[in-house]
Every structure is written in structure tokens, then in C-alpha cells.
TrEMBL record:
Species of provenance: Malassezia pachydermatis
Domain Glycosyl transferase family: 317-459
Pfam (any one): ALG11_N
PANTHER family per record: GDP-MAN:MAN(3)GLCNAC(2)-PP-DOL ALPHA-1,2-MANNOSYLTRANSFERASE
One Gene Ontology biological process: protein N-linked glycosylation
GO molecular function, one term: GDP-Man:Man(3)GlcNAc(2)-PP-Dol alpha-1,2-mannosyltransferase activity
Protein name in the entry: GDP-Man:Man(3)GlcNAc(2)-PP-Dol alpha-1,2-mannosyltransferase
Localisation per UniProt entry: Endoplasmic reticulum membrane
Keyword Transmembrane: yes
Location of region: Disordered: 541-592
ALG11 mannosyltransferase N-terminal domain: residues covered: 67-278
Parts of the chain that traverse the membrane: 12-33
One GO cellular component, as annotated: endoplasmic reticulum membrane
Biased composition (Low complexity): 541-552
Length: 592
């Protein structure tokens, strides 16, 4: 059939009309569903807040609370991300008595495997030494957390987790719409539901590492095998091309999701640079100029206090220590080969010399799951194959006391992860007085072990030979030179990455950008006006007792009293009164 005959076919227009009607109906239903969803949340949110305040015992204390929601699905993990979460909560509680913090998490009971609120806070105190006010902190259960688990998506993991994060965003809003919403885990796709509900809700994101990076795009394009690009994919050009297109599309969507935030803070220079690039990734639309959020750096708080108490002297100069989970990106295999290389090139390290004991590598780490346990077993098999078992120590899930003891004994802190977004272990090495040897990339090189006034604070390497050569140089370094480096490194670790510095930076780069001081001043002024109106209403009520038939002007003009414990209307009254505050911290990016 020719194109002309096809065009003249009346059945074609019937099916086209049917298709257009279907699309219009679908669009209309989606629009009505969104309107109904927003209306339902607005109608029920006040009651949800009152229920939370009642559970916390703060319903009738006469305060007007601001609700700050933290999205952190894995809040019981005890890692660096959880330290950021509880440090932020503690700081908000200390600086403003009118803030209620709410954590959306999948680790709280009654969820399967969940723990009680008391256990959650006890672990935070035990692991981080942080105590928070339980009467101003509430946990809400995320029942769909499994949707962001990498094991739930064996294929197209990035896309699957993005969908899961988006669902978690909607689930979180269904339980409570806060005045300020902060993602402290890195699920950028959870931010869209918040802004879809109301652009007046302030949204922040603390990014530990980008979900996708320009380095990942480059490796797939160049067909380089690695942790994020399997060797069988890199071996076939057509498959690599398909994956590259998939990554490009995902990068554009990820950038769009990040642009929903009002403020983004990154944990280091490397993450900041990649997020800055990804914010530009978008589908070209000449008629649309997206707004870019404020982008800053806030280094995570590190436990430097206890490590800084370790003496700097009396080290076993030939001992190295590594602290890392047995994940593939940590590259423990390279560490074993570094040990073998040192023994091959410097046989004298096999035996004692004076007070120096033979070469030893101390591996301290933990396993998250069965895959990590299998990886650990393969590492032990490799150690046996390399004939280095007598020079190794394995400490799996070691207690904190063992970690401190091994840090005290060792001379070198070893880290081999490529493009480590930050490197908390390297900070701990420096605080403990170790000479650090890390990969020459990302956080350890750009933010942590950097020179101070011309003095080295750490050392870096890229290849196996460089690691072997540098490690041996550190073992032979004169004691006075090593002591100066240890002192400078410890000072940098305990000042730049301390809890106090995190709090100062959090306030300046996150909180004051999300809720500017002028916005707080406006809020306080409105509250003062409401208090005066309540006083006038009380006075008018007293006069009504003597003249019950009269209706005073004071009663007509008075502002209705809000229920005790209720906030000022979900941050809308303040942001409506001063709408420029919502856009003051955003800037335009030219369309491409």
C-alpha cells in the first residue's frame, strides 16, 4: 500500500483519534490524581504533626515547631553517613529549641529487622559518642526500602534504584510533609516528589558520592574494565555502546533530579567537581532555563579525638595497617601484592633487625553480606598462593579496642581504593599518627593528605611499583623527619575534620542557605503578631462577659489561635510572605 493510500484510509484517522483520546484521558487522570494527592496531604498533614508531637510529649507546650525531615533509609548502619546524620540532628537540636527532627528510615520497628528508637540512639551514642534529645526526634518507617537495594536489581541497577528512591520520596511525604527536607544518603530521585508537592518546601542534599560520575562514563566509552564495568561488557563494542547510551540518559536524569534541590553540599572536592558537571547534563531545551542549586563542600565529621590520644612514637616501622570493608572497590588484592613486592625487592624485611620486627600487613575490616565473605575467602586463598600468610594479620569485625591497639603499633596506614570520594580511614590514620599511603586520586589526594605550609602530611601512589617504592621509603625514613610529618598530619586531621568544624560548615553552607536568617526573622515577626492578636482576643473575651450581646472589633480582627504545638502552616506562611527566599540561593544555567 502506498503512502497516499495509507493517508486516505479512514481507518487510520479512527485509530489516531482513539490514540489521542487515550493519551488525553491518561494525562487528565494523572493530573487529577496529582491534584487529589496534594489536597489529601495538605488536609491530613496538620493532624500527622499533632500525632508526632503527642508521641513526643510536646503537643501542649505552647511552642510553634519547625519540622525538619531527614531521608536516611539505612540509619542503623554505624558508618560515616550515619555519623553525618546524627551530627546534623544534634546540631539542629542544640541551636534551635523549636525544631523537631524526623528521620525516614527502614531500620526502625515495627519493620522486619528493625530496631527500637532506644536501640537506634544507643548505637549512635556507642558508635559515635553522640547523644541527641529523644523528645525532639521521631523515626518514620520506610516499608519500601528494598526498592533501593542493589541486590533487588540484578540488571539495570542504577535505573532500578532511581525508581526505588522516587517511590521512597512519595512514601516519606505520605507519612509527613516537613518544612525542610534533607537527603543525607544520596538518593537524588527522592527529591522530585517533594518539589512536585510544593516548591515552598525547602530541599537540601548531602552527597557522599555521585550515583554516576563522568569517570564511569569515560571508562565505558573507552571500554575499560573495572568495578563498574564488567570485563565481558568492555570486550564487546556493541554492548559497550548500548551501556554508554544508557549511562548518558541516566546522567541527564540524575542531573535533573539534583536540580530539584535548593542546596547541595558535597563531602569533598572530587564529589563537588563531579556533581557540578552532572548538574549540566540535560536534554537541550532552548525554551527552558533550569535553575542550578547552591553547591558547597562540607567535610564529614571524623572520630579524631580518640585516635589523637595515641602516642606518636614507639612504632614498628615495618608494620602497615589497612582499615576497610571487604568491598571490591577497596582493592585488597593490590595490598596483598604490595606485600609480596616488598618481600621480593627487599628480602631483609623478612626477618627482625634490632627492635624492628619482620614486615607485616594488618587487615582490619568487615563483611556486609555473603558476597563480601566470598571475597574475603578468595583473598585468603590468594595470600596462600603468594606465600605471604606469615606476614599477614586478619581482624574481621574487630572491636574498637583492637583497632586502636593496631593503630598504635603500626607505622604506615595503607589505602588502595581508586577515586575514593572522601576517605575517612585516611583521616583516622593521620589522627592516629600513622604515615599515610593512599591512591593518588580523589579525596585522599585533593582534600585530606595535602601539604601544609610546604610540609607533607601523607603520601600517594598509583601503580604497584610506586606503592612498593614509597612504602619502603617510609619504612626507612629518619625518625625525626617522620615525627614532624606525624605531628603536622595529626594537627590537620583534628582541626579540619573535627565535629566543631563540621558544625560550623553545616550551619554556613547548608542550614543558612536552606533557611536564611531573614526567613527566621520573618517567622519570628509573624509569631509575635500572632501572640499580640491572641492577647487582644483574650482581652475581648473578658469584656464579652460583661456585654455578651456585643461583638467587638477586636474579635473580628483577631488572628485565630493555632492548636498548641502546631507549626506556622508547613513553612508556607513564611515562604509565601517572603517568596524571594526560595530563589535567592539559586542561579541560572544557560541552555545548551
Amino acid at each position: 500500500m502506498s503512502l497516499r493510500a495509507l493517508w486516505d484510509d479512514p481507518d487510520l484517522f479512527y485509530w489516531v483519534r482513539l490514540f489521542l483520546i487515550f493519551i488525553a484521558t491518561l494525562t487528565g487522570c494523572n493530573f487529577l490524581a496529582n491534584v487529589a494527592w496534594r489536597a489529601a496531604l495538605r488536609d491530613t498533614n496538620g493532624e500527622k504533626r499533632r500525632q508526632i508531637l503527642q508521641k513526643l510529649g510536646r503537643l501542649n507546650d505552647g511552642r510553634m515547631y519547625m519540622f525538619v525531615g531527614f531521608l536516611h533509609p539505612y540509619s542503623h548502619g554505624g558508618g560515616g553517613g550515619e555519623r553525618v546524620l546524627f551530627e546534623a540532628i544534634k546540631y539542629q537540636q542544640q541551636t534551635d529549641a523549636n525544631i523537631i527532627c524526623v528521620v525516614y528510615t527502614g531500620d526502625i520497628s515495627p519493620l522486619q529487622g528493625g530496631v527500637s528508637k532506644e536501640d537506634m540512639l544507643a548505637r549512635a551514642k556507642e558508635r559515635f559518642g553522640l547523644e541527641v534529645d529523644a523528645s525532639r526526634l521521631h523515626f518514620l518507617p520506610l516499608r519500601n526500602r528494598y526498592l533501593v537495594s542493589d541486590t533487588f536489581w540484578p540488571a539495570f541497577t542504577l535505573a532500578g534504584q532511581a525508581y526505588g528512591a522516587n517511590r521512597l520520596g512519595y512514601e516519606a511525604l505520605g507519612m509527613l510533609v516537613p518544612d525542610v527536607f534533607i537527603d543525607t544518603t544520596g538518593y537524588a530521585f527522592a527529591l522530585s516528589p517533594v518539589k512536585n508537592f510544593s516548591k515552598q518546601v525547602r530541599v537540601g542534599a548531602y552527597v557522599h558520592y555521585p550515583t554516576i560520575s563522568t569517570d564511569m562514563l569515560r571508562r565505558v566509552r573507552n571500554r575499560e574494565a573495572g568495578v563498574t564495568n564488567s570485563s565481558w561488557i568492555a570486550a564487546y563494542a556493541p554492548v559497550s555502546w548500548v551501556k554508554y547510551v544508557y549511562y548518558r540518559i541516566f546522567a541527564a536524569k540524575y542531573g535533573a533530579a539534583l536540580r530539584k534541590a535548593d542546596v547541595i553540599v558535597c563531602n569533598g572536592t572530587w564529589t563537588h567537581a563531579h556533581i557540578q558537571d552532572l548538574l549540566q547534563y540535560r536534554v537541550p531545551r532552548p525554551w527552558s532555563t533550569p535553575q542550578l542549586p547552591t553547591l558547597r563542600i562540607v567535610h564529614p565529621p571524623c572520630d579524631t579525638e580518640s585516635f589523637a590520644k595515641i602516642p606518636l612514637d614507639h612504632r614498628q616501622t615495618r608494620w602497615m595497617v589497612s582499615v576497610a570493608q571487604f568491598r571490591p572497590e577497596k582493592d585488597h588484592e593490590l595490598q596483598l601484592r604490595i606485600l609480596r613486592g616488598l618481600l621480593d625487592k627487599h628480602p631483609e624485611l623478612k626477618s627482625s633487625r634490632g627492635a624492628d620486627r619482620p614486615l607485616r600487613l594488618i587487615l582490619i575490616g568487615s563483611c556486609r553480606n555473603e558476597a563480601d565473605q566470598k571475597r574475603l575467602a578468595s583473598l585468603k586463598a590468594l595470600a596462600k598462593e603468594l606465600l605471604i600468610e606469615n606476614h599477614l594479620e586478619w581482624h574481621i569485625d574487630a572491636p574498637y579496642s583492637v583497632l586502636l591497639e593496631k593503630m598504635r603499633q603500626a607505622n604506615i596506614g595503607l589505602s588502595t581504593m581508586v577515586d575514593e570520594h572522601f576517605g575517612i580511614a585516611v583521616v583516622e590514620f593521620m589522627a592516629a599518627g600513622l604515615l599515610t599511603l593512599s591512591h593518588a586520586s580523589a579525596g585522599p589526594m585533593q582534600d585530606i593528605a595535602v601539604p601544609v605550609d610546604g610540609m607533607e602530611t601523607g603520601f600517594h601512589a598509583r601503580t604497584l611499583d610506586e606503592y612498593v617504592k614509597t612504602a619502603y621509603r617510609l619504612m626507612c625514613m629518619p625518625a625525626d623527619v617522620a615525627m614532624k610529618i606525624r605531628q603536622v598530619a595529626r594537627t590537620r586531621a583534628t582541626t579540619t575534620f573535627s565535629d566543631t568544624e563540621f558544625q560550623r560548615s553545616w550551619r554556613k553552607n547548608m542550614w543558612d542557605e536552606l533557611v536564611p536568617p531573614e526567613l527566621i526573622a520573618m517567622n519570628n515577626r509573624l509569631l509575635a503578631e500572632r501572640a499580640k492578636a491572641q492577647q487582644r482576643l483574650a482581652a475581648a473575651s473578658a469584656s464579652v462577659v460583661s456585654t455578651p450581646a456585643s461583638k467587638t472589633q477586636t474579635e473580628e480582627d483577631a488572628v485565630p489561635d493555632a492548636p498548641a504545638g502546631q507549626t506556622l502552616s508547613d513553612a508556607e506562611a513564611v515562604t509565601t510572605a517572603m517568596p524571594e527566599a526560595s530563589t535567592a540561593t539559586r542561579r541560572s544555567v544557560p541552555s545548551s
